[in-house]
Design goal:
Length: 216
Amino acid sequence: MPVTVLLVDDEPLVRTGLRAVLAAQSDIEVVGEAADGAAVIPLVRQLRPDVVAMDVRMPLMDGIEATRAVLRTVVDPPKILVVTTFENDEYVYEALRAGADGFLLKRARPTEIVHAVRLVAEGESLLFPAAVRQLAADYGTTKARAALDRAALTEREAGVLRLMAQGLSNAEIAAQLVVGVETVKSHVRAVLAKLGARDRTQAVIAAYESGFVAPR
């Protein structure tokens, strides 16, 4: 089955460009478009997309509020891929903290756009650009550090979280640790559970905010 995508951006030209890139792939299908975050929830419920490619800045409801609304009200919500112009935009960071699963620049090459959609659909978040990693570190708090200490990750779980923060997929982590992919998946599930994180993105944000992983 193809990965189904809903495009949400207030610029028609951006939506047209994304549709052209994604529609050219045999394993991706664009099932709908919206010009504002306010239209996302009814479309998600109607179309049941696997991925929502969501602009951050929109006039009525921005991508941050739309992300929160989808995750709060939709049963089995889609993956949300934040699409924006500026990589050091604090709106992007807030969208990721709100629960978005990945990050993509509008100026990305077609191959990068396709890769991002596929990766997010598979449940493995994208590597944050350096500017967003620095924002996460700047937002660090004593509370975040205490929460990670309470999680009491094992040495292997801590190592897996560091590799997740580098943007490695389960298969890449398995290759680096010389273990099976299923073993890595088990460690990832344990890390998410101990951190109380919804997904990999939230776990990585916790790693940067706590200072467990330093931006570089």
